Task: structure prediction
Amino acid sequence: MTTRDVYEGIGDYDRMAACIAKEESIRKFLKMFLRDENFSILEKAIAANDVERAFYGAHTLKGVCQNLCLTQMYETDYVVTEALREGDLEEAKKYMPELKARYDKAMLRIAEMDE
Result:
């Protein structure tokens, strides 16, 4: 699977390539995303009803998604982050299944990326 293929349905490859011209650099950053722990931090904090920690995980994840042009995840995480910023845990929880589905899809596509 090419890097362009990886971005299909999860992000904006052209925008990412405009920011980082070297293909190997894009691939390196995507592989680093596989080790990012912010989604796990968010999930655990949501389960523990810890709004402050959940906001930290969501906000940091949102920035990572924006930097990697993972637009599908970014859009949903933005809603989660803003709900948590307002202290509305229940609103954030409503969007977690969608965010998890988009996260899982991105992780799978990145993991399948050609070396």
